[in-house]
Amino acid sequence: MNDTAPHIHELVVCSWRETPGWQKLAQIGELNALLEQLIVADIRRTQPYISNEALRAQIAERWLGRELARKILNTQA
User: Residue ranges of the alpha helices (H) in the chain?
Assistant: First the structure.
């Protein structure tokens, strides 16, 4: 965190160390859900009439990268 004062950085690091593992996982889950919402909103903004199947494919592509998403989607077909 180059834009953060050293004492604030230390507070963040100490807080993260003291946070129980279950709470860290919950926070990561919440961030992942938010990220997916942002991805869907961006796709729908540019392609308002996209099908659900195409939407899922684009979410996977943005989340995993084109190559991995295509491999996964092709194995599910």
Answer: 6-18, 21-46, 52-64, 66-76
What is the CB-side half-sphere exposure of residue 53 using CA atoms within 13 A?
4
Query: Binning pLDDT at 50, 70 and 90, where does residue 4 land?
Result: confident
Q: Are 32 and 20 in contact (CB under 8 A)?
A: no
Cα 30 to Cα 8: distance, rounded to the nearest angstrom: 23
Query: Which positions ≥6 away from 53 have C-beta within 8 Å?
Result: none
Q: What do you get for the CA distance between the two ends of the chain, in Å?
A: 43
For the entire predicted model, the pTM comes to: 0.73
Rounded CA-CA distance 71/50 in Å is: 21
